[in-house]
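Problem 3 from the worked examples.
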Amino acid sequence: MAGRRAISPVIATVIIVAVTIAVAIAVAFWMTGIIGLFTGFEQLQITSIIDTQTDIQVTVRNTGTSTASIVDVYINGRACVAQGACEVQDLDQNSPIVLRPGQQEVLTITDIDRDIVGNIGPGVSVEVKLLTASGKEYPKLIVLQQYGSQGG
């Protein structure tokens, strides 16, 4: 046993530094995963609005990282569901429209009360705004096109 020698202090220091760096990298990846779970966000994007003369079809996509729940649709500042200004297919006060990340949905707005929301027709600017359960609003202003217009 007298012939055994310990490792040099330089090699011991290199091993300790290597282990410390490996543990630091593991902790950094672990924290990144935890932060990713708690920093999800909703982001709705209205990609198109089509006036079909009988209803308005709004195409919306969730481009965020968490689920979004649409609880009301506003037309010209008037709440469709809450104020009875119109009806939105598959949306009422008890059941929101739920969009998962990356999901796209077409909202059909019918029975628009023009006395409440104002004049809606070709050439008129209309603001459509979506309200989510988290309180965020996603507005889009458009000018409605002529019904059945065709190029010629």
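Problem 4, a separate protein:
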Amino acid sequence: MAEQGFQTSGSELVQATSDVAALVELSELEDQARRLARNSRSDSTWRAYESDLRHFQAWCSEHHLNALPAEPLTVVTYLAALESSHSPSTIRRRLAAISVGHQLAGMETPTADAGVKSVWAGIRRRKGVAPRKVRAARTKVVTTIVAPLGNGLIDVRDRALILIGFAGALRRSELVALDIDDVDEDTDGLVLSIRRSKTDQEAAGETRGLPYGSHPATCPVRAWRAWINASGINTGPAFRAVDRHGRMRSTRLSDRAVADMIKRRAAAVGLDGLFAGHSLRSGFATEGYAQGTPELAIMRHGRWRSASVMRGYVQEGTIWTDNAAARLGL
């Protein structure tokens, strides 16, 4: 008597195996596509978006509203809730995160709604959108900050970070991304290979030269050499965390740690004003303008693509050098 049940032919088994393989391949390609999409923005931007989306989702949950997809009225109400307690720059980023979240989910973004745009315009008009600017760390400031640094490992590291960041007009993300292999020393100074930056997300890469300084205490080349000799690093991340006991870790220093370090070092020498990682880059542009460096040379070295953006860094540098009020005869 023939056995009861399902019987599978050899050809059907081959087809089923082929279908499974195709599904696995499709799943892998989808994962790869998600990774590629994530590479469209920096890791820090994605972290900020994810934090913003969590805040929006929690607010929606508290008020029994859908976060995804969100109705324009939900976003309008959310903006009104943020208006009294958050800066325009934070609100702008929250809107961007909501938009990106909907786009990645294949949904129409509510932030494109005319009502949402009107409320956002009202917030900008009422609160203003001028960012709180950090103080530019010009040459005199940089000299003051590094003057008391000694020969301990963390002092040697911080001196190199500050002087290379200033002379290279580096963003803090570019500074901490440097590997040992990205820094070459030749007879004229240091050659930095900047593999990726905010304006070079496709990682075409650029090189910049940092010449020897006129004063040994503020020379970026000598500071780099001292750090390499003190740390003994010969491969991997160039700048690493150092604990309070002077022990160096193998992990790369974070960009937030650079900002905190500059604030701390500026406060230690009694400097007033808001200092952060951005102060070095701003200070480079400001000092360059004050010294009469051609605008194109400043832009090229600092890798600014837009003259208008770069000029936003240098108002302090031109306020006295080309002042029309000085010609009034008062």
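Solution to problem 4. Residues 125 and 143 are 40 Å apart (CA to CA). The mean pLDDT is 83.
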